[in-house]
Write a structure and sequence with these properties.
The chain is α+β, with helices and mostly antiparallel strands. Helices cover 37% and strands 21% of the residues.
């Protein structure tokens, strides 16, 4: 039944090395049941993962409402770990408990096998979320493992991908404005969740902004950009006064993708066409610090130039 199991045995100094082939057997026919899940070529692959039952997870782990900066930074750091290990991801975007990873149009990663791509990204992200929990939550004990579901969507054009990213960022604004008003009514206005939900039913953005400003003296426009716009992770060429030559660095930014200025600034984001230099004036974030500043802690960083 089993043939060609043993390819050869070589003796070296009275010791031997066992070199084997995969056994062939009458059971091997079961492989024919595996479906071909190779993804359509010449398309952008988007892998989106989403937290499962994160509403309860956030309650059990005392997340700050309406936004917990620790949780958002942990999501970003887990996504950073994914991008660091997967060179074919050109951009990622995250908000709340979801993250989208966009692969280069011509990627051959895992031969474009859907199941391999999805499970690899999901498992790397999930394990990183757990592994780095204490880095952001300190003594807050992780009571049980989080879980994330995932999906793959294919887009045929760069325009589709841009619209996808705009859609996800528009979702950030809609959800965050609602949540900011909702939790202001609950935590400061002393309404029950049901009462707050009823109060906001049928309101538009202007109404929510008015409630926040008039009743709670909250100017929504001054909320942190990470809350209003989510986080964009880009792989860019970084040059600083610390590192004389350009190096690739994953940069986390919170810019407005709904405006055309963003896509003019990063015109080669999806389809590299030039070496145009973009001057980065944003903060030196933890993710940038890990990649650049820690290489030479003795030298201050005054400027960073990105292309």
């Amino acid at each position: 039944m089993f043939r060609n199991r043993l390819k050869s045995i070589r003796f070296i100094n009275t010791k031997y090395i066992h070199i084997s082939k995969m056994a062939k057997s009458s059971f091997e026919y079961v492989k024919s049941y595996e479906l071909d899940d190779t993804l359509l070529p010449n398309t952008w692959i988007v892998v989106r993962i989403d937290g499962k039952c994160f509403h309860k997870f956030s309650e059990h782990h005392n997340f700050t409402k309406p936004n917990d900066l620790r949780a958002l930074k942990l999501m970003n750091y887990a996504a950073y770990q994914v991008m660091k290990d997967t060179h074919d991801i050109c951009v990622a975007f995250g908000q709340s408990d979801e993250y989208s990873f966009i692969f280069n149009k011509n990627t051959a990663f895992y031969k474009r096998r859907g199941a391999k791509l999805l499970t690899t990204i999901n498992s790397k992200f999930s394990s990183s979320y757990v592994f780095y929990w204490r880095k952001f939550f300190g003594d807050e004990i992780l009571q049980y493992p989080p879980s994330f579901d995932g999906r793959i969507v294919l887009y045929p054009s760069a325009e589709n991908v841009i619209d996808y990213l705009k859609w996800r960022q528009a979702d950030v604004h809609i959800n965050n404005l609602y949540n900011t008003a909702f939790w202001a009514l609950v935590l400061q206005g002393k309404l029950s969740p049901a009462q707050a939900e009823k109060r906001l039913c049928g309101t538009v953005s202007a109404d929510k902004n008015e409630i926040l400003f008039k009743e709670f003296n909250i100017n929504y426009n001054k909320e942190q950009e990470i809350f209003k716009r989510g986080t964009i992770l880009l792989k860019l060429q970084v040059q600083s006064d610390i590192i004389k030559k350009k190096v690739t660095a994953i940069t986390d930014i919170h810019e407005d993708m709904l405006k055309e200025n963003f896509w003019l600034k990063y015109e080669n984001l999806l389809e590299p066409k030039s070496k145009k230099v973009v001057h980065y004036n944003g903060p030196i974030t933890d993710i940038l610090t890990e990649q650049i500043l820690n290489r030479d802690k003795s030298k201050p960083c005054n400027s960073i130039k990105i292309s």
